[in-house]
Specification:
alpha/beta; 2 domains; 14% strand; 271 residues; 8 strands; Adenine-specific Methyltransferase, domain 2; Rossmann fold
Length: 271
């Protein structure tokens, strides 16, 4: 069974996991999830030792809190704390209050409450990295709580390390070996997603240099991306055509707010 993220993370790979898993290598020492996001890939991966990284600080702090409570068998206490920040689906005023508080104190539980209540559950940040998504008349419900419990069980049983670094910083702190596997699901620059405030053209360019460096060291990698989106071709296709590219079966028309999205999800591998 594929677990779904309690954050309802935009770009979550839970629907694509059966296809991704077909291409995951076996006998991996450490799995590196560079852009962990909603954690769907790490949680559903077959690996026991996982470095789950994301640049969004409150997201990683939230996972670290889940891990701490799970390892101490305090999951229900953790869930009680999370529910204390629940925003009623009819209370825009409460949402705005929590949003203002979060942008001041960075509390990861308030962050989770905001993501659970905002428009389309899609986190969005301004150029000052302040959460600025609008109220979506949503709330933390029983389904969300069950997803949290499911995540806690897996976090407890696997050897997770959660890090909050840019990908260049990550590879300065960790030495990746040939028996490791690196998975990359970066923000899709041409998709203009709200969390792209944390992404830039420079970071995008550097990513392709990183792929070549990993390949030169014999380290297996897989990168998720799109070859086209809303009529735009990925401008970096020439940089990855030397690697194995597989088109995935995913109907963007069913999830897009506007029809005619014309997007093609792909994975890029060097093995």
């Amino acid at each position: 069974m594929i677990l779904k993220s309690p954050t309802n993370y935009a770009g979550s790979k839970d629907k694509l996991m059966p296809q991704l898993l077909q291409h995951f290598p076996k006998n991996v020492d450490t799995f590196y999830d560079l852009f962990a996001g909603g954690l769907s890939v790490s949680i559903n991966s077959p690996y026991d030792r996982i470095i789950a990284n994301d640049i969004i600080t409150p997201l990683i702090q939230f996972y670290q809190s889940l891990q701490f409570m799970s390892l101490n068998n305090w999951e229900e206490k953790e869930i009680e704390i999370i529910q204390s920040f629940k925003i009623d689906k009819t209370s825009k005023e409460q949402f705005l209050k929590v949003r203002e508080e979060f942008n001041q104190d960075g509390n990861p539980y308030k962050f989770f409450a905001l993501v659970s209540s905002c428009t389309n559950n899609m986190m969005r940040f301004n150029k000052s990295f302040k959460f600025n998504q609008t109220f979506g008349e949503r709330t933390i419900n029983d389904n969300t709580i069950q997803k949290l419990r499911d995540y806690c069980k897996v976090i407890k049983t696997k050897n997770f390390t959660f890090t909050n670094l840019s990908y260049p910083e990550l590879f300065k702190q960790f030495r990746v070996n040939q028996n490791d596997f690196v998975y990359l699901d970066p923000p899709y620059l041409i998709s203009e997603a709200g969390y792209n405030a944390y992404w830039s053209k420079e970071l995008e360019e550097g990513l392709y240099t990183l792929l070549d460096e990993l390949d030169s060291k014999g380290i297996k990698f897989m990168m998720s991306n799109v070859s086209k989106h809303k009529g735009k071709d990925n401008p970096h296709l020439d940089k990855i055509k030397k690697y194995k590219i597989i088109e995935l079966d995913f109907d963007y028309e069913k999830v897009a707010r506007k029809k005619g999205s014309d997007s093609q999800e792909i994975i890029v591998m060097n093995y």
